[in-house]
Amino acid sequence: MPGTNLTRDEAATRAALLDVTSYDVALDLTTGDTTFASVTTLEFTCREPGSSTFADLVAPTVRDITLNGRTLDPATAYVDSRIALDDLEATNTLVVTADCAYSNTGEGLHRFVDPVDDRVYLYSQFEVPDARRVFTTFEQPDLKSVFTFTVTAPSHWVVVSNAPTPEPTPAGDGVAVWSFPTTKRMSTYITAIVAGEYHGEFDTYDGKFGTIPLGHYCRQSLKEHMDTAELVKLTKQSFEFFEEQFDYPYPFGKYDQLYVPEYNAGAMENAGCVTLRDEYLPRSRQPRSFFEFRASVITHEMAHMWFGDLVTMKWWDDLWLNESFAEWACYWCEANATEFDDAWTGFANARKQTGYRADQLPSTHPIAADNVDLHAVEVNFDMITYAKGASVLKQLVAWVGIEPFLEGLRTYFKDWEYGNPEFKDLLATLEKASGRELDSWAQEWLQTAGVNTLAPAFELAEDGTYSSFAVAQSAHPDWPTLRRHRLGIGLYDDVDGRLVRRDYLEIDVEGDRTEVPELVRVKQPALLLLNDEDHAYAKIRLDERSLATAISDLSTFEDSLPRAIVWGAAWDMTRDGEMRTRDWVDLVLANIGQESDAWAVTRIPASTALAVSFYSDPAHRPELKATWEAGLRELMLAAEPGSDHQLTFARSFAGAAHSDAALDDLIHLLDGSFTVEGLAMDQDMRWVLITALAKSGRFGDAEIDAELEVDKTISGKEQAAAARASQPTAEAKEAAWAAIVDPTTPNETSREIAFSIFRFGQEDVLEPYLEKFLTASETLVDVLGFHKASTVLEYGFPRPLGSEATLARLDEWLATSDAPKQAKRYIGEARAEIARALTAQAYDAS
Ligand SMILES: [Zn+2]
């Protein structure tokens, strides 16, 4: 949408001029299916009477604007999503009446009608600049204020916001009015309205600072799947942990968690009114990694109540800090306060890998991005923000020590409550608490991009001891910074068939070579592991002997964390073309059956599926695909009945199935003539099998339609759309592509199709889509809105067309196209992934 940007300078100017006294927001949700009425009364003071500023609003119709009793003509005062305000007084009252639009993109106020029962559900999503799609705002985080919401809605609805839900007042004709109490001081982007026929369940948390009412909400059609007791347990454990560690009472009175449909992200930290995607309430069997992840989301959002909501960044430059902190804190809380006490292993196996991946793409950027305006925020909000940021905070905690780190945090929350500090303020507090100089640390870790590689460099004496030992550090030539690392080194020996840690030391690594005198004259172990304990954020290399030990004995590590480091190193070497793809597949098939970490069990087969299709030598690929398919079938049959391993291997086997015999297996699993003890054929598993059969051409629209008759839920509709898109016909691809570029396709449906349309092995019907994709990318952001377009651009590229010719075409396009930054960014990433795959393919062929 044109004219929705806001620069950092404009925001700073406005913040210097104004203080916002209060917002009074009246919403009428009974005016139709496409728009709702929004009346905002904004009270604010101005330091320079007579001067001008502007308020923000994105609305199809602005009916009335009054400033200090003066009527402003919307036709001239409302331009480019801004309301021009001139001749300000010392104290001001602005009243704006508008019709705002419901969205189907998950931005602003999203409206959803449940296909199962036609019930209506609304929820807001405002980060980064979208509160202005629902009411008139000063849309920047440092103009905090108090908010009083009044909502008119059908009287049988539930309405939830940041302040406790009041008793509604009947207003006749089946309509009622909810007059919410005034909130605490907060930023616009964490305000929220959730309304509709939600089902709610209630509890309370009694903690060291008092009682917090807890609400859990979901759609009526999901209430049988809301495992409220489990969610309440996690919520209470997290509150107890954070209130104790932060030594500061939860600031927002009550705490509601609302599971909402067609949600773009995982969740959002609206103060006291957290929204989460309702796929987290599973209707079918899910593995432990699913629940471990959900727990991390719950704790992540709760951490934001202090870090983000109570104390908020001044401008989006520090968005990285907001997210990195919540990411770090969620794993820290999970590991210490919940049943997921091995959460850091899961972090190493899953989340951290997404940071390494993002940091090796051409779009990488320093963690602390220079967000000069809202467009820059959009481009810089990614896995560098979340996963690398959290990894680097983990390294910072190792660098200063957990106790000084916490001491600094506690001071920070008290000093800056309800305020807007900057990163330098946190750094100053941490320096004071730890006594360590952190400016230069921040410079090398936060202001520069790229990941270092750490490798052992040693010589051996005749008696098998190290005669010298050093850690060699290198960097990619495009991102040449070498950094300081707090690094663990583990020495593992084979003891009665187990890999057991003989010794562990921690050192500070600096520069391109760090001598480790402690290891001289120490006997070389079977496996030497750099970054044992996973404090560091770095790519790790194994020496020849250690790699051989890893390949033969990986599953015999006593602990899951060093195993995760080795899995990560081997995967990284495969991606870098330093380990043959077929050797990676052998490593996985030989060890994944015994893996104990939930995240490793789910993530590694998924990575391997990509490697088999994309990183393998094309000449050897048919053989490798057969090995992978047979290996997964064997793993599925050998797994303990009803285990997560069995579930994951069954899903992976369906994805890998391509031989006639394997596809027959899938059909027989569906019709019940082939059963695997303990493997439930629940609704989600049925869709996995149906999609796999559709992808291979065994099933068509008839079978998909028949399943949709049985499963008329929104999940069913989304899964059916994905299955249709996966069919290997030109017609199916055309229909799927038309749905992707159609703005009326809801966000989650569009996402499922984007994930499913371009399949490896279907290259003959995908051929037109490279050019179609490049052409569409020029306008996609305008046509679909930011979030939907980003999903298509990031995940919907026709990767199976990856070849030297495609690379050449992309180079030409990137050099000449005028497409938006966002489009060029993702296409640049696709180009880099293809180049990486071709390198891996070449190595696999060697
Ligand atoms: Zn967050």
Features:
twelve-stranded mixed beta sheet, alpha+beta, globular, five-stranded mixed beta sheet, 29 helices, 846 residues
Q: How confident is the prediction overall: mean pLDDT?
A: 96
Global shape: globular
Helix content: 40-55%
Present as ligands are: zinc ion
Main sheet makeup: 12 strands, mixed
Instruction: Find the structural class using helix and strand composition.
Output: alpha+beta
Radius of gyration: 28 Å
Question: What proportion strand?
Answer: 15-25%
Low-confidence stretches: none
Termini separation (Å)? 50 Å
Q: What is the β-strand count? A: 27
In DSSP terms, counting alpha (H) and pi (I) runs of 4 or more, how many helices? 29
Overview of this protein structure:
The protein is of the alpha+beta class and 846 residues long. It is 43% helix and 20% strand. The chain contains 29 helices and 27 strands. Strands 1, 2, 4, 5, 8, 9, 10, 11, 12, 13, 14 and 15 form a twelve-stranded mixed beta sheet that branches. A five-stranded mixed beta sheet has the order 16-17-18-20-19, with helices on one face. It has a four-stranded mixed beta sheet with strand order 25-22-21-27. β17 (210-218), α3 and β18 form a beta-alpha-beta unit. The chain is globular and about 90 Å long.
Helix and strand arrangement:
Elements: H1 8-17, E1 18-28, E2 35-46, E3 53-56, E4 61-67, E5 70-72, H2 74-77, E6 78-79, E7 82-85, E8 91-103, E9 108-113, E10 120-125, E11 146-154, E12 158-161, E13 169-170, E14 175-179, E15 193-196, E16 199-207, E17 210-218, H3 228-246, E18 255-260, E19 267-268, E20 273-277, H4 288-306, H5 319-337, H6 343-359, H7 374-379, H8 383-400, H9 402-415, H10 423-434, H11 439-446, E21 453-460, E22 466-474, E23 485-495, E24 498-509, E25 513-515, E26 527-530, E27 539-540, H12 544-553, H13 560-575, H14 581-591, H15 598-615, H16 621-638, H17 644-656, H18 660-671, H19 683-695, H20 701-710, H21 714-725, H22 730-740, H23 747-756, H24 763-766, H25 769-777, H26 780-784, H27 786-795, H28 804-816, H29 821-845
Parallel strand pairs: 1-11, 8-9, 17-18, 18-20, 21-27
Antiparallel strand pairs: 1-2, 2-8, 3-7, 4-5, 4-8, 6-7, 9-10, 10-15, 11-14, 12-15, 13-14, 16-17, 19-20, 21-22, 22-25, 23-24, 23-26
Helix pairs in contact: 3-4, 3-5, 4-5, 4-15, 5-8, 6-8, 6-13, 6-15, 9-10, 13-15, 14-15, 15-17, 16-17, 17-19, 18-19, 19-20, 19-21, 20-21, 21-23, 22-23, 23-27, 28-29
